[in-house]
Design goal:
mainly alpha, 3 helices, rod-shaped
Amino acid sequence: MSEQKESSVLFSLKELMNLEEDRIRGEEADKAARTAAEDEARRAAERAARDAEEARIRAEEERRRAEEQRGREENARLDAIRHAEVEKARLEAEQQARMQAMSAQQQHALQIEALKTDKGKKQLRNILIGTVVAVLTIGGAGIYLAVDASKKADAEKARLEADARSKQEEIDRLNKKAEEANAKVGNLESAVANEKDQRKKAELQAQLNAAKAEAEEADKAAGRPATGGGGFKAKPGAGGDDAPKAKTVCTCKATDPLCDCL
């Protein structure tokens, strides 16, 4: 009887030890699962932060490139305006010089003719009076021509400036559309990378493919280098004069002095 009780007690102790070991193994498994989950969450957070930083860098690079492009276009426009003004001043000076030379030549010819004929002081006086009248008439015509040329130059300058503004507005619109399309692609790429549900991931991938096609079309319309639909990606040493330059949509005529895309 005593042996049975002792055996029963040993059995109970063994069961308790097994239960305790099971409990310890369960706690260790739970702890390992929590650690794995925390590691996965941390890695996912790091990926999201990295993707967000890359998207921010791409957006900043796009903004800087757009500002540089606008600066180059503005400088080209101002250079063209200055060139037109210099050309206008040169033409006016040449016109005035031609008029003065013509007037002096006519006056000299009249004086020589008066000396040759020498029909008296009265005739010489009349010739001189006629010369003065002719000079005044020619001077008036020169002033009229100069004013008319100035008006025409001002009108042409206004037309060229209006064409330049219209072209710049179209360039800005196409660049903005391309930037928005590439930003959308960047957001969808991050969403696809972070999505765990396969069905949702497939839907996002389809949206990403469509967004990439739209971004490529937008880049092409804006005359920008092909980016594969993901926007520009920052590279060490990128930027400055060695950075890819976006082409402008050429809508001006070959004779347009403000045209900077010929």
